[in-house]
Design brief:
Chain lengths: 229, 104
């Protein structure tokens, strides 16, 4: 399965994502420059974290207009798999490929730490290798990760199972203290209605090797690889 | 075509958590401004549009707000359109040709 990692000006985790997918997971992966329109035959697109266009105006607001995003939108409309982490998640929301928006952390502080998230829906191409309710330890590093959406939309998303990950404590319980950024309903990751686009604030590419602090995020990559088989 | 000056104000939606506004509010209170309330932090963007009429400039400004300058999920916008004062000739009165408030 061929993967494409999209590099925007200001992307930060593009190299780590390419490393995680190709070196650790053993997949065929290529870097795609945002000015290109060709996806070079990739079957799964990865939008990495970072500070595309310096976060000007709003996070992800300008990157959304990069030439490659037209290709990403039609790829997603055809059912192609797209995963966005951190700034990639913000870009997918701004591009209306995912519902909601990401705003300033409740604390106003940039947060860089390991947090726990619970898999709320293990019946998706991105989470099928995980157990429902499984607690994963993943790193976050963001200033604008507070997930916001209109109440009625949130209700529908919950009903359809689009809330994929929620911030919890190490035992898997939800609490105010376990919600690092003030996200509505402690949402850490969501999918679109069709379940082929997935965005999350934690960084899977930083959690694939035990030597580097943990490999809990392998389940996402394994899920996608299994889905393709 | 006459130049129009557009002033765009983008503010967080009512009901959306505005941690900056809240932090500034508590700082103002600690300075002694005890009666301060509802501090909101937004963006002020100015731009110029060469347009045949104020209505045409307003129309373009609204599209700019909807497509890029504001995110309707989290923000409201208002804008004002004025004719740009004539810099070379005699001073022109600043005529305000319209103000739009979205979502009210």
């Amino acid at each position: 399965m061929k993967w494409g990692v999209i590099r925007f000006p200001g992307s930060l985790d593009d190299g780590d994502a390419l490393y995680a997918i190709s070196e650790v997971m053993g997949q065929d992966a290529t870097m795609l420059w945002h000015k290109e329109e060709s996806l070079q035959g990739a079957k799964c697109l990865f939008l990495p974290g970072g500070f595309s266009y310096g976060d000007y105006l709003r996070t992800g607001a300008i990157a959304r207009f990069s030439p490659i995003m037209k290709s990403v939108a039609s790829f997603a409309a055809d059912g192609g798999l797209v995963i966005g982490t951190c700034n990639g998640f913000q870009i997918l929301c701004e591009a209306h490929l995912l519902p909601g928006a990401l705003t300033r952390n409740r604390s106003l502080s940039f947060i860089c730490e390991r947090v726990h998230v619970r898999v709320e829906n293990a019946n998706t191409v991105f989470t099928r290798a995980a157990r429902e309710g499984q607690v994963l330890c993943l790193p976050i590093k963001h200033g604008e990760g507070c997930y916001v959406a209109p109440e009625d939309e949130l209700r529908q998303m919950e009903e359809r199972g689009q809330v994929i990950l929620r911030y919890v404590d190490a035992e898997g319980r939800g609490s105010e203290a376990a919600n690092p950024n003030g996200s509505m309903r402690a949402i850490a990751g969501v999918a679109n209605e069709r379940f082929n686009v997935f965005g999350l604030m934690p960084h899977p590419e930083h959690a694939v090797e035990k030597m580097l602090g943990g490999d809990d995020a392998r389940v996402f990559f394994q899920s996608i690889v299994e889905s393709a088989q | 075509m006459p130049l129009h000056v557009v002033k765009v104000f983008v503010t967080p939606h009512r009901g959306i958590l505005d941690p900056q506004g809240r932090t500034i509010e508590s700082s103002l209170k600690s300075l002694g401004f005890k009666s301060v309330a509802n501090v909101k932090v937004g963006k002020y963007i100015t731009l110029e549009i060469d347009a045949p009429s104020a209505a045409a400039a307003r129309n373009q400004a609204r599209k700019m707000c909807e497509q890029l300058l504001a995110n309707p999920v989290i923000e409201d916008f208002t804008f004002e359109v004025e004719l740009k004062p004539n810099v070379s000739g005699s001073p022109q009165p600043r005529i305000k040709v319209g103000r739009e408030v979205e979502g009210e």
